[in-house]
Amino acid sequence: MGAKRLHVLRLAFLNIVHRPVRAIGLIVIVAVFAFVIFAGNMLNASLKTGIDHMADRLGADLMVVPEGADKNLENSLLRSEPSTFYMEDNIVGSLAEMEDVEKASYQLFIASLDAACCTEPVQLIGYDPETDFIIKPWMMNSMTGELSFGDVVVGNLVLAEPGDEVIFYGQPFHVAAKLDKTGMGFDSSIFMTADTAQHMIDLSGERAVHPAGDSKGLISAVFLKVKNDTDLHQTADRITQSCHNVEVVISDEFMSNISDKLNKTSGITFVVTIFLWIAAILVLLFVFSISFHERKREFALLAVLGADRKKIAGVIMCESLMIAAAGTICGIFITGLILFPFQTLISVSMELPYLIPDFVTIIKNLFVSVAISISMGPIACFYSAMRMSKIDTYFILRENE
Hints:
Elements: H1 8-17, H2 20-58, E1 62-66, H3 70-79, E2 87-88, H4 91-96, E3 101-112, E4 122-127, H5 136-139, E5 151-154, E6 165-168, E7 171-178, E8 189-193, H6 194-207, E9 218-219, E10 221-226, H7 232-242, E11 246-250, H8 251-294, H9 296-304, H10 309-339, H11 343-350, H12 359-387, H13 393-398
């Protein structure tokens, strides 16, 4: 059987296999960096997708809540933290009659202490089907027709499916539909008509240990859609002047605050990525330089056997490329194992709208992360490869004789 020719790729592969400890160490370094850059890119993309989705789903220009309840509303929208807060329902008519207001609809927020469908308390939200312009558009892909009395629609993270029965405050409710994932706190919420919500409040005093409320004529928030070219701040000021003990949340400012948090997160991720990239390059450069000194005789022997300096430099570059590729694959694979199966846990921990982007965006981030990570190897060993042009085969072989 004839001997196999040692091409550059095969020789580089054999060099890696025969030095497993060094190769594994370098692969781990690249894998950590690949993990950080791909995870960072995906987190930023998911947060941006979640914020964009939330802006589309919010639908209202102004949100009127009881004084001091603005944080409760924010926690419910962003972090799925259930809250119960009330104000008199006669405010709805006053707001709807304002000159600048085009649409007005109210919602009723009730915090459920526990339920078999959920591992944690959930937010129950009652809405007015006749005036609603916020929630019904979400339901178009999940159900047809109006929600009946006694029926509920569950968020994507609620452990119940259409046709199931859930119990709140001692009352059973039929699950009519389940919403698609939104990336908002509403993924852990349960929706019903205001009549159903009020009926639940009325009966909770008789059947539940902790009643949901003790009076009628109450609402939690009013969502307003204003006419075009309306000054939101002026309208908000008029509302606070005419309606006592209320606060007005401007949607644009609300979304702007969330975007600021995203920008800070993106900035931190970018700085950490740059720092790790430089650190990884320096570590790889140091290791390849040491390896070059240790293998000078090996390279000199290759030269004696007929390999020119270009081919030897190619062996070094191929080794670094293979190591970088192996590390990148490992890092990307580990990132995928963490980000996608545990996206719900990540969403809750981030306390921001979080939604995995579409397939095209994922592929773009994957391509960028792979390109940057794999480039580390050739960049780090470029110095060592250039030094090959300066070695003197004769003197290297005579060293230590």
